[in-house]
Amino acid sequence: MLGSVEHRQLVCGLYRKSLKLSLDWIFKRHKWRPFALGIRQQFEAHRQETDPQRVELLVKATQYLLWKYRHPEPYVCKWGFMI
Question: What does the pLDDT average to over 35-43?
Answer without folding.
Answer: 95
